[in-house]
Amino acid sequence: MTQFLEVIFGGIAQAAAYSIIAVGLSLVYGTARTLNFAHGALYTTGAYISWILTVGYLGLPLWLAVLVLIPILFSIGVAIETLMLRPLRGGKNWRVTAMMVTLGLAFVLDNANLILFGAVAKPMPAFIEGTVSIFGVTVSAYRVAVLIIALVIVALLEVFLNRTRFGWAVRAVAQDIQGARQVGIDVNRIFAFTFGLSVVLTGMAGLLLSPIFLISPQGGWEPFLKAFVIVVLGGLGSTRGAIAAAFFLGLVEAMVVYQLGASWTMPVWLVTLLLVLMIRPQGLLGKGQSEAAG
Questions:
Q1: How does 192-207 read in b/e, with b if 16+ C-beta sit within 10 Å?
Q2: Fewer Cβ neighbours under 10 Å: the N or C end of the chain?
Q3: What's the mean pLDDT in 81-85?
Q4: Distance CA 8, CA 251 (A)
């Protein structure tokens, strides 16, 4: 029983990190109505940059590495949206073209990471060592930290989207782009900001999960696939739906790993997705249309 509870807690902690990745993917889809296939590659890129800043070369303390990492990731996201995606907007079938561009970007980033860092996966040490006891169950202190940090990030994002004027502007663009333009909202600015924030979120997830999983050049595809399943299950464009789906699937994953092994995780996730969509095609919290904040 104790081992089962340890596995469940580990699943919840990973689910919290998955929710950050999924929310970032959902934000971009909710505002721009396009799927960013480079999201997983940016997760890996964030993990590699974290490695460079901490144990790889610079040896920065974690708090300082995070302060450096956030503006780097945000700038990467803004540059991608401004230089690669914005010129496509307004063209014929631009959303499909944008998805193909991000798919190509994913391959470029994967190969760049391979050239720069090599094919051998790099370990990232846990920034918090030891264990803690929660209700008599011994769990990794680092997984507790991951859970707390991820929950804080999700809570701050919810506050931003629902309690600030800029967050309301993001929601307005997600609901009606033309209507947002008519009331004076700079839609291009919202698109750039949202993409930058999305890259920050997935990169921070890369930092949080890299001590749990090794960092490898093609290691972002599984997080991307999981984020995609979470976003669809939660309801396309709904950040609250993505959060709910992440924790639901995280618990499913923990039980599957405990009973059947890790190799059954994705098959069970996909079967769960199909069953839920058969009952509720719009997802857990979807409303039939994309909303940036659910």
A1: bbbbbbbbbbbbbbbb
A2: N
A3: 94
A4: 6
Asked if residue 254 has pLDDT above 80, the reply is yes
Tell me the C-alpha distance between 221 and 217, whole Å.
10
Mean local confidence (pLDDT), 10-14: 81
pTM here is 0.90
- CA–CA distance, 182 with 60 (Å, rounded to integer): 46
List the beta strands (DSSP E) in 57-134: 131-134
242 in Cβ contact with 26 (< 8 Å): yes
Residue 48 CA to chain centroid, in angstroms? Answer: 16
Q: Which two tokens stand for residue 88?
A: 């496509």
* Cβ–Cβ < 8 Å for 217, 44: yes
- Neighbouring-strand partners of residue 178: none
Q: Is the model's pLDDT at 171 over the cut of 70?
A: yes
Length, in residues, of the chain: 294
Average pLDDT in the 90-118 region? 92
Write down the pLDDT at residue 1: 61
Separation of alpha carbons 288 and 273, rounded Å? 17
What was the pLDDT predicted at 290? Answer: 40
Enclosing H/E stretch for 36: none
Residues 6+ apart with CB under 8 A from 56: 122
Instruction: Judge contact between 53 and 191, C-beta under 8 A.
Output: no
Contact predicate 203/74, CB 8 Å: no
Q: Which residue has the higher pLDDT, 212 or 50?
A: 50
Start-to-end CA distance of the chain, whole Å, equals 36
